[in-house]
Amino acid sequence: MTLMLASACQKGPALSKHSEVSTFETPSLGPIGSDRLGVLLDQVPVYAGSSKNAPRLGFLHAGTELPRSSKNAVTPDCEKGWYQLAPRGYVCADEGISLNLDHPTLKAMALRPELEKPLPYVYGKLVQSAPVYEKTHIGKALEPGVKVSGRLSRGSGVAIVGSWTAPDESKEPIFLGLRMNGQFVATRDLAPAPESQFQGVRLGEGGEDLPLAFVVRRGVSAFRWTAAGPQKARDLEYHERLSLTGRYRSSAGHQYWALPDDLWVRHQDVTMIHKRGELPEFAKDDQKWIDVSVITGIMVLYEGTRPVYATLASVGRDRLGDPKTTASTERGTFRVVSKQITRRAAPETTGPALEDAPWALELESGQWLTASPLHDRFGIENTDGDIEVSPRDGAFVWNWATPNLPQGWHGVQIQPGDPVTLVNIRK
Questions:
Q1: Contact indicator for 382, 365 with CB cutoff of 8 Å
Q2: Residue 88: inside a domain, yes or no?
Q3: In terms of residue numbers, what domain contains 409?
Q4: Residues 232, 308 share a domain
Q5: What is the model's pTM?
Q6: Which of 123, 158, 344, 372 has the most CB atoms within 10 Å of its CB?
Q7: Domains in the chain: how many in total?
Q8: Whole-number average pLDDT of the chain
């Protein structure tokens, strides 16, 4: 197994940070059809023109094969030449591009993300602090093997895109899971990620209507009202969705909300989502925007004034603290500036981390909205400041939000003139 998975993006996947440029060429390099190219590196940038000074439009991931132009254009900053992609963009063959579709890296990283499923890849969770391995050669015979190159904390999550059995320095064979960056973890150190089954609900056009509620505590009940007051009628499941009539009443200092089946739920056992009385000025026409409350943990997707989806999110565990000094989610209205199938954990991250968070939307504030397959604390503050939703919610939001990801790309950066999705984070 031969892997070439360094990154050609010198500053990693921070797509919203690209150089200012004046002019660059956008040559037509012939038809884009049956000719294909393969991607060998972890992240290969796609440029707006045939120059490394051109804005970056997005990036490709190792193992991808894409149609390319029949011709290329050699420039001083790209000796092997630029190839044109559909529907737009150029890649430099110097930066991890191969025309040999039998290259071992393409075979090893051939697993493609499943964009129609709750998670694009299989995820594992480390059951203990464990070494990370990279490919090397062992012994005098220089046999293929692995060596320790780092460690991951217990509880960290990783996407697994392949498998291999190889010896380490002790020459004992290890069953390995291949990570997206070309490194390995031993399968003995992994358990399947728990992957919450929770999912929000579509609103309107045959779906649910507001108000509604989600159960956010375990071991709670719905009540039937009797002459003696509320009496337990049935158990409620954690994250169960409840339709509400809007009626309420009180007993013994507790407020209860009415359900359509004449049962009642206590206010403190649920998170309610009401119709907003006043909407932001930008809520007009078909403008897509996401409304997030850091106090209640609710998230509602809107198209103009119309709510189309409601769910729960995890926000910064310090809620209303200073996001510069505490684990709090910064409040304000921010554009979504990039969309990525997965987002790599920051190198400076300490402790357990989700190494390749799925369904990633980057906000212009530097915060991220991603899915997490590692917990089910949705509707409860739980993160270092980013916003996390369940895998099923993440897939829905990611596919609904702009910018749109070109087929075969791993990440895309918003460009001037593209439709914008806004994220409104409030108390």
A1: no
A2: yes
A3: 288-425
A4: no
A5: 0.91
A6: 158
A7: 4
A8: 92
